Amino acid sequence: MKQGFEVKDKALLEAAELILAEVRAIGADEGETWVSRSALTEVYYELGKVSMVRTVFSDKVCLKLLKDKRKGSTTLNSFAPQDIKAAVREAWQAAQSAAPDEAEGIAELQENLSFSAGDEQPDLDAMYRQLEQMLKDVRQDFPKISFDSIGIEHNFGEKLYANTNGVRLSDQRGLYQLSNMFMAKEEEKTSSFNYFATVYENPADRICEENRVRRLLDETQRQIVTEQFAGSFEGDVVITPGCLENILYYVADTYLQDGALISGTSPWKDRIGEQVASPLINFELVAEHPDLPGTSPLSGDGYVAENMPLIEKGVLKNFSLSRYGAARTGLPRSKNSGGTYVLGNGDTPLDEVISGVERGILMGRFSGGNPGPAGDLSGVAKNSFLIENGRITKPLSEVMISGNLADMLRDTVAVSQERENSGYWLLPWIRVSGVTISGK
Amino acid sequence: MLQDYLQAYVNKYGFSGYTELRAQQNRNRSVVMLNGSLTANNSGTSRGLSARVVKGGAYGFASGTGYGDDLEAIAKVVQTASSHAAFLDSRVQRGKPDFPANAPFVRKDGLEHDVPVEQSYLLGIVDELDSYIAERFPKLLSRRIFARVLDMEKLLYTSDGVVSHSYVPRSNVYVFMTTQDKDGQPVELYDVMGGYGNFLSTFPNAGDFFGKLEEQYEQLILKAEGVYAKPGIQTVILDSDLAGILAHEAVGHTVEADFVETGSVGGPMFGKQVASEKVSLVDIAHTAFGKLAPVPVFVDDEGTLTQDQMLIENGILTGYMHNKESALKYGHTPNGNARAFDFSDEPLIRMRNTCILPGTDKLEDMIASVEDGYYFTDMNNGQADSTGEFMFGVPMGFEIKNGKLGRAVKDTTVSGVAFEVLKTADMVSDTVTWTNSGMCGKKQMIPVGMGGPAIKVQINVGGRS
After folding, report:
1. Cα(A321)–Cα(A153) distance, rounded to whole angstroms?
2. Are A176 and A200 in contact (CB under 8 A)?
3. What is the predicted ipTM?
4. Of the partner residues B261, B387, B462, the one whose CB lies closest to the CB of residue A47
5. CATH homologous superfamily, domain A2-221
6. What is the tens place of the pLDDT at every residue in A175-189?
């Protein structure tokens, strides 16, 4: 919910106003701060049992000040006035030694707003029941699955952004999140591990009713006994939605964000408006979406966030740049801080995405080295299956892929109609041709 | 330095049931310079208090940021943890007895390293390194220098009378250099300097590291002129840095007792041959080869006095890493692998300094023994699996042809199944090198040390055909 600026916890506002007053008093030209207070409650399962209930109360302050475009910043986890004053002095001393940077600055004055979503208080009983129900469902429907850990947490927090230009923005939200790691085992044989995370607002949700969860558990059960193949070939890779999130993270980091553009290493740095990917690719960073409770209404540098396309029909539309990155490169600032990915669905049913593969693999997880600046990547195709003549034939292990991120987006030949949703991302399956796939 | 307010709390309130009470302060500093511009100049402190209470085998944990002389605030954290343990105990009714009590002791470790460092000192070192690179290597496409300090200080009181105050400093400088290959594609190489110690003692002069920058640049130019590795199983000499991550990723994770309990491959292989008899692997607690290990841990966060944990002895899997609970379950002795990253984190079973022990071979003899293969000299990230399948990135390496080093190799990845790869280890060098910049992720991050000699193995290389 969006409304006029109103901070519920007055301690946040008092801390922020003290910080900005100290920033001015010490002689800085500009300053900004994030102040937050949160309570996280977790029910945790490990070693075959519900093992722990945990609560973390947390206060956090990040502050930045500028003097003659020289920057100093500090973080602390106390609202005590003496700690805040010491932190401002520390940031001031850091700024004295820094070189000036004309690109430095803070968010401009804008409408002051507050946002809120979710419950403040965790329902501990409901969280416990939800975990018990999930374990019961998995034991019944997927008896070979063994969980290393499951955490169900409720995180409630309020955070406030304030700066010396008069900007005041706040966000208060309480969300439940489930994360885990699991494998399948039978006698002495085990599958690769797998995992999923999901964010939601209602702890009464039955986790195992979600198609994505059932698919992951089922695929993992079918990977206890795997096969390997010898040699290598160029083939198609069908990338599952969860794995695609990992690949898109690499794409953003390698081609679209501050580091790659400020350093000038991004091969896409001069390609706004050009075709960089298959016309099937529509890649958007979202700040608001009815199906994604994990979005954030505020950007990290003090703006109200908005949805923003990165690639439309394969054409590069925007970069994902912070205020600083935009000022350094002369390119437009991103409308959000990224991290919540939506890839538009295609018009090919998933069955046909797979049936169109003559020889290739279905890749459930990618475990690889960080791509180089040109986007070259290689790594293990975990939780994967061989596809032959349009059919999934056998589970694989020890299979690697290598290729180039930009080439993979360019060589995307099918995007599924179906998408999966983690609460943080909404993504389809894609089929990429011409990837080097190697066995033992 | 953390003030001890816990003693007064314990004197006043004592403990009711098994309890760990920990105050902790993590101090961070970071400076990032990108092409001469300062993009990060930050210092920070994360300080707080946590309590973990065990009732009938059910754990309650709570933490808060207000660590100070307010004993009521400390009591509130302990009470919240107790309340959680009681809630869970009422649900699960496990009925377990408390852990066997440790003999009480008091220890202070590493506190002499708590030396104030000004942010300006980091900036000065980074600026000097950056200026040197800019002047010496003007044709670089980009350069990035990242200085990072993480000092972890913990004060632990347990209900069985353990008092431990420890300080573990770490200071690193990462240098990234990027050039272009003949096709205009960017090629990057990074190096990490530093390790255990405060920033002043680790980086007394920037000039001490100019030689490393020269070496890094030379390697980068070779890499830019390099070739892609051939995919598939190859004979590879993994240099010391890579052997360390092999020890950590390929074996270490599969023999953490919690992972074993879930079903990792380490379970059924206990007592069996899992590696060549030339391979012995140990998780060092604090001291190795007469020196402090990269991340010395003298007392873990459950109050266990640490010892080295042998994992593989002459190729036989002989041990797991434990916390108190898993050690009790397996009938083993806990050797202090329960570690927490921040004050708000509960202890998990973690590695400390995992190291393959040195062999007797000379590196030059190992290279000379390879007719057609690779010598990989550096690593970046790595991941492991319950099956023992692992991967790690290789940003630098060379071909070996007829026993001699050949062309450099561009970024690649190696992978394999841990125990299968280690069974192929037929040569192990006589020199161990440690890396002390790694952070291991497992619910929480944690600093770890990794070490090893060079080893010659058969391993899958993710090259291009």
Report:
1. 31
2. yes
3. 0.89
4. B261
5. PmbA/TldD superfamily (3.30.2290.10)
6. 999 999 999 999 888
